Amino acid sequence: MIILNHISPMMVLELILGIKYHRITGKTENKDIYDVQWAMDSAEKQAGHFFDSRQTQITNLAKHMQTPPIVLCPYDAELFGHWWYEGPYWLYVLFKKIYYDNCDFKLITPR
Length: 111
Description:
With 111 residues, the chain is an all-alpha fold. The chain has two domains: 1-34, no CATH class; 35-111, no CATH class. Helix content is 45%, strand content 0%.
């Protein structure tokens, strides 16, 4: 049984319905309203920045190596969707950019 007396009624609705009403804006009761479009736009910008940063990182490393560099980017899976609602969308945008943009690296998994 979950004890819900320490959280607000709006947070109870968010838990039950799975709909996000407020942004995470720090340790205060005054939360900004969650704006889906703003969040998606932000995730797209962040995915683009991450993509560009990896491109630059790999290009710079390759100049000093005889074999192509491998960049490892581990993440806590709980981040994508639980604490960061836009996480799955960020991954989607990143994978689309890697597939469609002029990308000089590829995604791999351990063998």
